[in-house]
């Protein structure tokens, strides 16, 4: 049974956040189990795009700062890193770090920010096959990886937390290739599980003080859930986070794949008692998610893509071309200053929806 540690946190005052994060780390015995003294730790935060912390699209900087401060106090050297959507360059990273509050988080805690944009091919033997991932440099250069995620609904994977957060270890625009190679939801979820097995996070925490409901992971609405969770098993952390958000873990394809492989069995919640706060699933389509969760896999694989809606470019589009540049299927073009979708080429990966800086992409 995997234990998930919970701490109440009803707001982003730094003292409250630090108390909650320390409570989780101490409860799980992180310092002792990981022997942190002299270790290089990668604190992998969720920095999907350059958006202010109050938008609830990214890991809150106080959660990252508290985690980094704890690890450093036990002798670790901490690097905060992510590969956000879009170009992976030092300039782009600085813009995202500044907007999301990670520059301040590093200054507060004594952690470093990663500006090395090189990538390493990392291989793992999984289920008798060799899987290779092009990962950001800090993954190969650290001794310990800690996932520092945000609790959000997700248009493609139902929920994003500790496990899906590690997709940001894939370098830059290489992430688009994974969407193109695995357009079916089940196959993409399997790739994420294999990525988690390759990166092997030693511990995961989830920022659910305020999460995101509705059209997540970037176009939804912030919602207070009042918790921070932590676990050695990222899939277990995600399962308990979904329960606290009133979501059904059986509908999450990443968790379902983890269960198939025996990476997730029973979970238990320790620490503070947290009341359930019901989140609206992405796409306002709970019936769709429920259908995919209960019908046979062979059937769901065939009809799942038909059930999922297409992105639709609204009149809010400002013609910035972020979606055009990020689209794995080359289904978007810029015409007369507006993005235009070719549905025949669309693979429904929702990268356009995730990365639009003005929330101009709806689901229909």
Offer a quick outline of the entry.
The chain is of the alpha/beta class.
Describe this protein's structure.
The chain has 364 residues and is of the alpha/beta class. The chain folds into two domains: 2-284, Rossmann fold; 310-364, Alpha-Beta Plaits, CATH 3.30.70. It contains 14 helices and 15 strands. It has helices spanning 14-28, 30-34, 61-73, 90-100, 102-109, 137-141, 174-181, 185-199, 234-244, 253-260, 286-294, 297-307, 322-326, 351-355, and strands spanning 2-8, 40-45, 77-81, 112-113, 119-126, 129-136, 144-154, 158-160, 203-213, 221-231, 267-271, 311-313, 332-335, 338-341, 361-363. Strands 1, 2, 3, 4, 7, 8, 9, 10 and 11 form a nine-stranded mixed sheet that branches. Strand 9 and strand 10 form a beta hairpin. Helix 1 (14-28) packs across helix 3 and helix 11 (286-294) runs antiparallel to helix 12. The longest helix is centred in the first third of the chain and has 15 residues, at 14-28. The N and C termini lie far apart (40 Å).
Fill in the keyword field for this structure.
Alpha-Beta Plaits, globular, single chain, 9-stranded mixed β-sheet, 364 residues, two-stranded antiparallel sheet, 25% strand, Rossmann fold, alpha/beta, 14 helices
Uncertain segments: none
- Percentage of residues in DSSP E strands: 25-35%
- Radius of gyration, taken over Cα atoms and rounded to an integer in Å: 19 Å
CATH topology of the largest domain: Rossmann fold
The total of helices stands at: 14
- What is the CATH first-level class name of the largest domain? Alpha Beta
Give the overall silhouette: globular
Mean pLDDT: 92
Approximate helicity band: 25-40%
Question: How many domain modules?
Answer: 2
Structural class: alpha/beta
What is the level-2 CATH architecture name of the largest domain?
3-Layer(aba) Sandwich
Largest sheet: 9 strands, mixed
CATH H-level homologous superfamily name of the largest domain:
LarA, N-terminal domain
* Number of E-type strands: 15
Roughly how many Å apart are the termini?
40 Å
Pattern of helices and strands:
EHHEHEHHEEEHEEHHEEHHEHHEHEEHE
């Amino acid at each position: 049974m995997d234990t998930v540690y919970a701490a109440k946190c009803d707001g982003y005052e730094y003292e409250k956040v630090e108390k909650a994060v320390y409570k989780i780390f101490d409860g799980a015995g992180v310092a002792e189990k990981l022997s942190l003294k002299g270790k290089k730790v990668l604190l992998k935060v969720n920095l999907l795009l350059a958006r202010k912390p109050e938008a609830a699209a990214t890991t809150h900087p106080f959660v990252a700062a508290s985690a980094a401060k704890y690890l450093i106090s036990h002798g670790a050297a901490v690097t905060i890193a992510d590969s956000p959507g879009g170009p992976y360059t030092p300039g782009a990273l600085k813009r995202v770090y500044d907007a999301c509050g990670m520059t301040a988080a590093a200054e507060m805690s004594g952690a470093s920010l990663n500006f090395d944009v090189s990538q390493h091919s990392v291989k793992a033997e999984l289920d008798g096959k060799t899987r290779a991932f092009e990962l950001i440099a800090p993954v190969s250069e650290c001794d310990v990886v800690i996932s520092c995620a945000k609790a959000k609904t997700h248009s493609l994977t139902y929920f994003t937390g500790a496990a899906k957060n590690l997709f940001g270890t894939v370098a830059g625009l290489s992430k688009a290739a994974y969407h193109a190679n695995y357009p079916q939801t089940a196959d993409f979820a399997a790739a994420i599980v294999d990525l988690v097995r390759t990166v092997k996070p030693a511990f995961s925490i989830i920022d659910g003080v305020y999460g995101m409901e509705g059209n997540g992971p970037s176009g939804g609405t912030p919602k207070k859930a009042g918790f921070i969770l932590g676990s050695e098993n990222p899939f277990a952390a995600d399962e308990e986070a979904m329960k606290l958000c009133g979501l059904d873990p059986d509908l999450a394809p990443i968790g379902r794949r983890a269960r198939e492989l025996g990476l997730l069995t029973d979970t238990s919640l320790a620490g503070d008692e947290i009341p359930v706060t019901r989140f609206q699933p992405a796409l306002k389509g709970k019936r769709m998610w429920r259908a995919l969760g209960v019908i046979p896999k062979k059937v769901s694989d065939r009809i799942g893509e038909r059930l999922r809606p297409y992105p639709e470019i609204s009149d809010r589009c400002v013609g910035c071309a972020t979606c055009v540049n990020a689209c794995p299927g080359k289904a978007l073009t810029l015409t007369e200053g507006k993005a235009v979708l070719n549905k025949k080429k669309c693979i429904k990966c929702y990268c356009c929806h995730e990365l639009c800086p003005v929330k101009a992409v709806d689901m229909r």
